[in-house]
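Record minuted for everyone:
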Amino acid sequence: MPGDFIEVFHDALAPEHCAALIERFEHSGAVVPGQVGGGVYPQLKRSSDITISNHQEWRDAETALNLAMLAGLVAYLRRYPYTLIAPLMLQVPDPATGEPRRLGEADVAAMDDAALGALARQVFVPGSINLQRYRADSGGYPYWHCELFPRDATAQTLHRHLLWTIYLNDSFAEGETEFLHQQRKVAPRTGSLLIAPAAFTHTHRGNQPRGGDKYIATSWVLFQRAEKLYGG
């Protein structure tokens, strides 16, 4: 639906890479029950997860997933430039005078992908990546939730700006990501990348897959911490 800030980018990750991640997940020996912000609550979320970030044996997978996310993020910023402009009041040199002025929508449109990606890496940081499996006819995340919550001593969760998910398979029925206020269901498709805002406006849930297990890679795009953005 145009203008609902929910974007899906097909073929973000090749099917063979998706299949390889599922295979590694199944043979990792590191799967644990999925958690929500307050801990393990199967009545809210029933899944099996691995957090792959900051583990050397998963470094290649983490890099590949973040690169796929970054390509989608650049496209997302082109469609919704105020994702970047509105919260930060960034400055750029005026081409005529050289004096600093506020970054505007036209500046974002004029950037090539490399420049826009570099700017995104300056102000955003990737979150930790979870691989998740939802068992057929039993798993799911039926609780309506958003991605911001204050129960975090580091306040890192309050820096989440966007959520993203890459669907690693689609060999099941249903299992959509459903957004409450937008009245929209996103059907999983192998290799597709979903990006949406992290706040309550995009309250969502993960519907139960039918007839086959569902696998995803999921994380967030966070703001850099203030001391990194502004110094001090």
User: Anything to note?
Assistant: The CA atoms of residues 66 and 126 lie 7 Å apart.
